[in-house]
Design brief:
Helices cover about 20% and strands about 25% of the residues. The protein has about 500 residues and is of the alpha/beta class. The strands form five sheets. It has a seven-stranded mixed sheet with strand order 16-15-14-11-10-9-24. A seven-stranded mixed sheet has the order 17-18-19-20-21-22-23. Strand 17 and strand 18 form a beta hairpin. Helix 1 packs parallel to helix 4 and helix 10 packs across helix 11. The longest helix has 17 residues. It is elongated and about 75 Å long.
């Protein structure tokens, strides 16, 4: 075991030295095996679990996975042990990047990387083409920041150019957006009817008991479906269990939806995650369609820089938490990171997003489909605490104008309304809104219908009745009695 290396300092234009290193206790990686067959990218980094690495390696992982079928072998190299690498790769979800242990810094030295002064290697990369010629050596300054998405894309575009793939940023962006589209035997027809259905409307934690019988106790999950087979799922809180059971009944998909496999209809759709706090993903392991072969879901959302979406959800299904691992699921799951304020077109649906203010970024979605517009905006706190007056609009500094523009003239705005204005003053930094904020954004955005959402687990049916009445009264006092306001409840259906 150990490393084998021919030591000499190299520079761009040189042929890469030949080296071998242990990937595991039974597998040795030899760079000679790849030369002549694929390009090789070496990513040197300080150490597993350091903040800069938690930020950058998952970003490489995401962008490599979305950059086309590249002939590129990627190795992450540090002086961590094999066991440390294996644990780190499993935690952050690395499929395209293979971690190698360079405990004596021999591989780093042969490419001219400086000796670490504190025992930690320097953030650097070496890009080698298929012929073994070193095309890039980049060394970041000590204490530097993780590379930006644009810097990573620049490296991957160089590799794409070698293999005759489009390198124009707009072309590449369109390729990635097309990859997000579910494959269908035939494109879904434009719908004539839409249904919005609420499966979980609570925030923070599920609740139960007689005091919650009317509004329900499941956490966040909403579905948007059409009579031609569209399926969009907003969040996968505990309400996703009941949604999944419904999708496996004879009621879904509708007769106009295409697709069957081995004599039975399959389920395919998009899961749009606002963020990955537990109350928005805890129902995923209990979402029955992922346990059926032939079913397919494209899962999208903003990914925490320290973990990919896939690894975050897989963590819920670790053996110590759940008896079935994600790796053993028979369905097909793909994960895509959305950039905020990036537009996508999926099954004829125009999707726009903005980032909301939450302890980790939460994504608001606008879907335009069948001539209707639905906006889902939960887990959002005003940047300045509002001083609410019953007969005056909140100050402009309180309102998130990006969200107002996103929701402009929407048919339905589903908005975080976890607190009253008084409660919100005691919850600064918790990442949620009040009914006053929701009403004022709806009025400014000129939406037709506002749905109060993400109810606090401490609010029983009577408390939610009072908040709904207060919201309606506020809209009237502000001169907008025409604004229809509902309070979301488990099982609520809205036909569009």
């Amino acid at each position: 075991m150990g490393q084998q290396i021919n030591i000499k300092t190299v520079q761009v234009g040189d042929i890469t030295p030949h080296w071998a290193a242990d990937y595991s206790h039974t597998i040795k990686i030899n760079i000679e095996e790849f030369l002549g067959h694929s390009a090789v990218l070496l990513l040197f980094y300080p150490a597993d679990w350091t903040p800069i690495v938690r930020d950058e390696l998952p970003l490489w992982e995401e962008l490599i996975g979305m950059s086309g079928n590249l002939k590129l072998k990627v190795f992450g190299i540090s002086n961590d042990t094999i066991e440390c690498h294996q644990a780190f790769a499993h935690e952050v979800g690395l499929d395209y990047i293979f971690l190698l242990s360079d405990q004596l810094n021999q591989i780093a030295e042969v490419y001219g990387l400086p000796d670490p002064s504190d025992g930690l290697g320097r953030l650097a990369l070496v890009l080698i083409d298929e012929q073994g010629v070193i095309q890039r050596i980049e060394v970041e300054p000590e204490g530097g920041l993780a590379r930006s998405p644009e810097a990573i894309e620049d490296v991957l575009q160089q590799v794409r150019q070698w293999y005759g793939m489009p390198t124009d940023p707009e072309v590449w962006k369109q390729e990635r957006l097309r990859a997000m589209q579910l494959p269908h035997p035939a494109p879904l027809k434009p719908p004539t009817k839409l249904q919005l259905r609420f499966w979980g409307t609570r925030g923070s934690a599920p609740v139960s008991g007689v005091g919650y019988s009317r509004y329900g106790g499941n956490t966040s999950c909403v579905s948007l479906t059409s009579d031609s087979g569209h399926l969009f799922i907003f969040d996968c809180g505990s309400g996703a269990r009941e949604l999944g059971n419904y999708l496996l009944t004879a009621d879904w998909p509708p007769p106009a939806a295409p697709g069957s496999t081995n004599g039975h209809r399959t389920v395919s759709g998009y899961i749009l995650l606002s963020h990955t706090h537990l109350d928005h993903i805890q129902g995923f392991p209990f979402f029955a369609p992922i346990f059926k072969p032939g079913n397919r879901f494209h899962i999208m959302g903003w990914a925490n820089p320290s973990q990919t979406l896939g690894s975050t959800l897989a963590g819920l299904m670790e053996h110590i938490y759940f008896p079935v691992s994600m790796d053993s699921l028979p369905s097909t799951l793909y994960f895509y990171s959305l950039r905020h304020e990036q537009q996508a077109m999926l099954d004829g649906t125009i999707i726009n997003t903005v980032q909301l203010n939450h302890p980790i970024p939460s994504t608001a979605y606008r879907l335009d489909l069948g001539g209707k517009t639905i906006v889902y905006a939960t887990d959002h706190e005003p940047r300045i605490s509002p001083n609410s007056r019953p007969d005056a609009m909140l100050d402009d500094e309180v309102i998130d104008w990006k969200l107002v523009h996103l929701a402009y003239r929407a048919d339905i705005l589903i908005h975080d309304a976890q607190y009253s204005a008084t409660e919100l003053l005691d919850k600064v930094g918790w990442g949620h809104s009040s009914i006053e904020v929701a009403v004022d954004i709806a009025i400014r955005a000129e939406v037709k219908r506002l749905v109060l959402y993400h109810h606090d687990p401490g609010h029983d049916d009577a408390a939610l009745d009072k908040l709904l009445a207060a919201a309606r009264e506020r809209a009237g006092r502000l001169g907008h009695p025409e604004l229809e306001i509902l309070s979301a409840s488990d099982g609520l259906q809205i036909e569009l």
